[in-house]
């Protein structure tokens, strides 16, 4: 019997992705020297902002509304990153240029995806998948939760005086991510085992998390 195919609305899929990424530009606030971190892109910046109540200045390197894949930093980025106590980045093949920037200007670089289990890449789509892994890890809320735990740990190392604030906000944010995961599970459970067709091969983590087969 031919498998039933469920085609999810691209609007719904994009909305789900945006709920997870929170990919917005965080406007920096004026803080004292040594109270600034650099982040490669919006998801990291949003998490740092949530964990610190905006009490740490954030420089987001990737400009808003710019495609992350294959973006390369411009010469002025190096100068703008100076003054940050550390730089947060995610994974090779996506924003490893952040680690190179940190090394070149002599600040600490933190890889915030430590402990996340990456899915092997579909090599026929290697413009989005590098070093053998699919880089769209944030489509699974559990991966964002692990990322949040890592960022919280790194922030406590950098700003131990803010430990109580960071830990409290981490607990609250993890609870929100758990609720999001439960909402996705409830909405998608009737479609478990079915096929999700998308225009772009970026939703395999979502499919794996909720029992869908993804084809692009």
Automatic annotation (TrEMBL):
One GO MF term attached to the UniProt entry: metal ion binding
Organism superkingdom: Archaea
Keywords: Membrane, Signal, Transmembrane, Transmembrane helix, Transport
Protein name: Zinc ABC transporter substrate-binding protein
Residue stretches in coiled coil: none
GO biological process, one term: metal ion transport
Record's keyword annotation contains Transport: yes
